[in-house]
Amino acid sequence: MARRQRCIAASLPALVSLLALLVAVWANALTTSFAIPTGFLRHVSPTSGRMATNVGGTMISSSLTLASGGVVLALSLLPRRSSTSQTLRGAKGEAEGKIKLFSPAKVNLFLRIIRRRPDGYHDLASLFHTVAFGDSLEIKVLPDAEKDALECNLPGVPVDESNLVIRALKLFREKSGIERFFGVKLEKQIPAQAGMGGGSSNAATAFFGANLLCGSPASPEDLIRWGDDPVIGSDATFFLSEGTAYCTGRGEIVTPIEGLPIKEGLSVYLVKPNYGLSTGKVFKAMDLSALSTVDPEELLQTFKDKGTSHSSWVNDLEKPAFTVSPDLSELKDFLATEWGFEAVLMSGSGSTIFCLGDPSGGSQDFEAATKEKFDIEGIWKTSFMRRPSPTEWYQEV
Ligand code: C5P
């Protein structure tokens, strides 16, 4: 009798493992895409004890505190076909527990101001596009930390809670219920107060990176929804699209647009004077009765049909920006009249002016002449870029 009990006891772990394997195979058969992130149990929120796992694009809440560790083991041994493995293509160095992500700048291909809202903001309608110029952000989990740590190569950049990266990580914890803290190293190239969305891009990149390091509990659509919070700025949600989007509201209502028919190899020159412009100041200087009257939906259709080969270039914030800084108006005139670019427009609320095409006389002469006549922080030659797919991040070119 005692021998029979010992025998049953001895075969119990094998039975549990077999059962676990059967459950796992059954679960895998139910979905086409299922992966439990490594360190799954560590990611369970201590507050809720629950964790959301992305299964085949649907969020299922896994209260799988999984009585048997064997199930976790069996599941983790299954082939991974989740979005996680795809997203890794946008990142470098995940194996060492840290990832390096490109954090691109944006330009506004058009920007219409629609109305002033009771909350003091303005409703706008704008076509945003990412470019291949940007920052780089390295992010890792800090296993025993109780706060995030941010380092930046530029001494003037705040690394406390006023930085959108820190706010984005906090927002990620709130939305996901995952109590993990992160270390971030930010290498900045995108200038501040430039109208290129640098801070918002960094916030969106940190948001994406945190999600990736936690096993991608949020789908790309979830991330866009989670990022829609004024604490991380009006433009952050845009960067969670694939890089081309029609943005309305404060800018946070993002309608993703498929790639525009833009000429292959079209150059984009970003010209940033040696001063920035405060978005708030530019909006304050705006005369609502002097705005363009062109329908933004018509503008959108023009860009969808013709890419950038047309003459419908509008940014309602140019006039107020030129009121704040008359020098910027002179810079735009110089760029627009002397070099034969296809288009020249201020981005966002300035102070960057972008030029499309190549300058007659060549880029060296163009740079030298512009820098001789104006006080310039930088001129960068770049191109339009997009994410390769909704699950892959922007890749540095
Ligand atoms: O979005 P962000 O915090 O960068 O905006 C800075 C300021 O610009 C806001 O406080 C507001 O005065 C103005 N703004 C606006 N309408 C928008 C975006 C910004 O009036 N859509």
Automatic annotation (TrEMBL):
Residues 1-27 form the signal peptide. Residues 310-369 form the GHMP kinase C-terminal domain. InterPro entries: GHMP_kinase_C_dom, GHMP_kinase_C_sf, GHMP_kinase_N_dom, IspE, Ribosomal_Su5_D2-typ_SF, Ribsml_uS5_D2-typ_fold_subgr. Pfam families: GHMP_kinases_C, GHMP_kinases_N. Its EC number is 2.7.1.148. Keywords: ATP-binding, Kinase, Nucleotide-binding, Signal, Transferase. Residues 163-227 form the GHMP kinase N-terminal domain. The keyword tRNA-binding does not apply. Belongs to the GHMP kinase family. IspE subfamily. This is 4-(cytidine 5'-diphospho)-2-C-methyl-D-erythritol kinase.
